[in-house]
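Fold sample X.
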Amino acid sequence: MRKLIVIAGATAVGKTALCTELAAYFDTEVISADSRQFYKEMSIGTAKPTLEEMTFVSENNTPKTIKHHFIDSHSIQNPLSAGQFEKEALALIDNLFKTRNKKNDILILTGGSGLFIQAICDGFDEIPPISTAFREKLNQELEQKGLQSLVAELQEKDPEYAAEADLNNPQRVIRALEIIRSTGSNYSEFRKLNKKNREKSKQEREEKLGFETIKIILDRPREELYQRINQRVLTMIKNGLVEEVKGLQQYAHFSPLKTVGYQEIFELLDKQNEEKINLETAISNIQQNTRRFAKRQLTWFRKDTAYTWFDVSKPNYKKEIIAFIENLIN
């Protein structure tokens, strides 16, 4: 059966470089499941792969540019939900397998957005119908009291989900709270129940979709990962992050921009902000918030026992991953 190789992991762990090399080795293409790299307007702050990073150079110096899908595919003015991504990405995967027409073919899915990867591999949780009144009320509270008020409620009522959720994303926070308020039960409990149902139907889903998934997590020692994150943020600033965000100020209220790296610069640029911060503080805030985000990403992935973990700080990790994949596809 055809295989979808999932390469996941925290931000800055080294997914892009590995996927480019794997795609060259297996003669395949890469599908991005990074929920911010979809957007044309967001490049520097999302660490979007450059043409150079998407090009593999062989030992005899022959370059090969690897096709990456869902990079610059959408606009922030038309945000892509995880549900929409599931439909679009599955249609793309089906088309790629058909047009490539290779026996035992593989494709690579990569990113750090656990929800978007789950959408492809497992589908979505079944949640009971909820009155739109709950969402309308929460959106009013978001406008009147701000996101932190809703985050505090989520942390109090469902600390388990709050520990792994992207708390900078108002859509995720509101989704969890509308379930909590309407049902009286924790969102995390619904997810546990649906996980059992997904495990039962996994084989049926794979047969329906026509491919199996092989899940791989890239990991590094925490201090090494944090150093890479800190350096990446400095590189973003050097490459023009502040200028990129300046050009997006009129869209600051759009949901794709309510994310680490952009919110901190919006705060820096906000002339009406009473607690005015300088660039040094903004950089420090981005680094700290990105480290926290990486921690939540790893918490999410650890709950999925289907992943096989590889320490990419080891010298032979690429050979180990290639051997692992070849063993499963042959």
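Fold sample Y, listed below.
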Amino acid sequence: MTTPLDPHLFVIFGGTGDLAARKLLPALHELITVGGADAKVLAVGRKALDDEAYRHWATTHLAEQGYVDLSWVDRCHYQSLGSDSDAYEALATRVAELEADGRTTGNRVFYLALPPAAFTPTIAGLGRVGLPTSDGWVRLVVEKPFGTNGATAEALGDAVHECFSEEQVYRIDHFLGKEAVQNLLALRFANPLFETAWNRDRVARIEVTVAESIGVDGRADYYDRSGVVRDMLQNHLTQLLALVTMEPPGDFAPESIRSEKVKALGAVPPLTHGDMTYAGYVGYADLDGVSTESRTATYARADMRVSSWRWEGVPFVLRSGKHMPERETR
């Protein structure tokens, strides 16, 4: 049985972006229409829209994906952030207005569906106007990538902790929300048949493939600075690799699972140039936002191994690409 969600205000920074249209709004649709979640939604963005214009935008994108019964979209509101110096003060006022009826009891989710460069100023803006503190619970959700290397990840962590406590922070890889991924731990550890065969004596090779039929139209400016490795391999596929290769945790508490995943990844030797294959799809270089000197890959394959007693000698292949002949995850 699913635990009912507390009433809350769900604030989406990047509310008119690709992630909001393809992932967050469909997820909210399911939570509200199927799960019965009592939530108000406040989309925040740079576009000059009002509530009705945003509801039309959201309805259009949901309908294009086959969703029906969209009456819940009336719960959606929109706040244009703009570049004014008092933009976050205006946001705080709007949050207070939406919470004035007492229905959400001060519970707030701030979801940063934004380019990584916008994380730090957005978090600082929230902190400056006191939004991380309320009479209810407050959660900050930060989408991947969390920095581009160790130093930038630590700097972002410091910026987050200046305004939010660690208990309030959720670092999210939305790929892990897929049902098949969610079921992977149960498949492995709750089924003795699979767990006893889950090793080098029974498995000859493991391949993880995420092929997307769509290109990067509409987000080429972001994608050209990240590429397929940062967009897919170092987060989505690496998380799957960890779930597949980790040892059984002592319990299923988040800290225990995270510890075993870290150990599993620590057993992966560093990759060399010879372990990697890169390619790009025809037409990518002509997209608006792509540098004329771009060498960004839209397809990558990593040949890996895991130096542990369970997986020594088993080849691992991670691959992902955009604009592939067909969409496939396996």
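Sample Y note: Residues 220 and 287 are 7 Å apart (CA to CA).
Also: The radius of gyration is 21 Å.
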